[in-house]
Design a protein that fits this description.
about 160 residues, binds zinc ion, 5-stranded mixed beta sheet, 5 strands
Length: about 160
């Protein structure tokens, strides 16, 4: 049994109480957040954001990949954001494997090696700093106002990663 049916039922209730109507597509707070996809991170709750406030770009690790940069370019050039927040977190799954080992397992099971980087990393703060450097070094982002944080999944607290 898939869980999708339950999700649709949940949406039915959500839509029944939908009060704010259509909102502008430009984020009201002018901010874009790049965060890990980890299920324990509810970015809107963690940061006190509401619908329409911010762009939230998520992937495994919250790494500033080429695709995250692509979304930030759209966010800044077309939708007016001027500020970027990066969020990694304690207990991240990306610390628990190596690209080589996982690629080997996938290749063994499927006969094909992923052509893309799997993006594991060994140090949270270094990966946040690398993300900040990627943003500051990008010629395509006009706004470099970026700060990086670690979210503690045990306390709900954010701590800034100093450059
Ligand atoms: Zn994570």
């Amino acid at each position: 049994m898939s869980f999708t049916g339950q999700l649709l039922a949940n949406n039915h209730s959500y839509a029944a109480g939908f009060a704010h109507g259509d909102l502008p597509s430009r984020p009201a707070k002018g901010v874009a957040i790049v965060a890990c996809m980890d299920a324990r991170l509810d970015i809107h709750k963690i940061l006190g954001l509401a619908e329409g406030d911010a762009h939230v770009i998520r992937n495994a690790g919250g790494t500033v990949t080429e695709d995250a940069l692509r979304s930030l370019v759209i966010s800044q050039w077309l939708l007016g954001t001027t500020e970027i927040v990066l969020i990694h977190h304690t207990g991240c799954g990306m610390l628990g494997f190596t690209d080589g080992d996982l690629a080997d397992r996938i290749a063994e099971a499927t006969g094909e090696r992923p052509s893309f980087s799997l993006g594991s990393f060994i140090d949270l703060e270094s990966n946040v700093r690398a993300g900040i450097a990627a943003i500051k070094g990008s010629p395509f982002l006009p706004h470099k106002n970026v700060r990086g944080f670690l979210y503690d999944v045990a306390t709900g607290r954010l701590e800034e990663v100093r450059p």
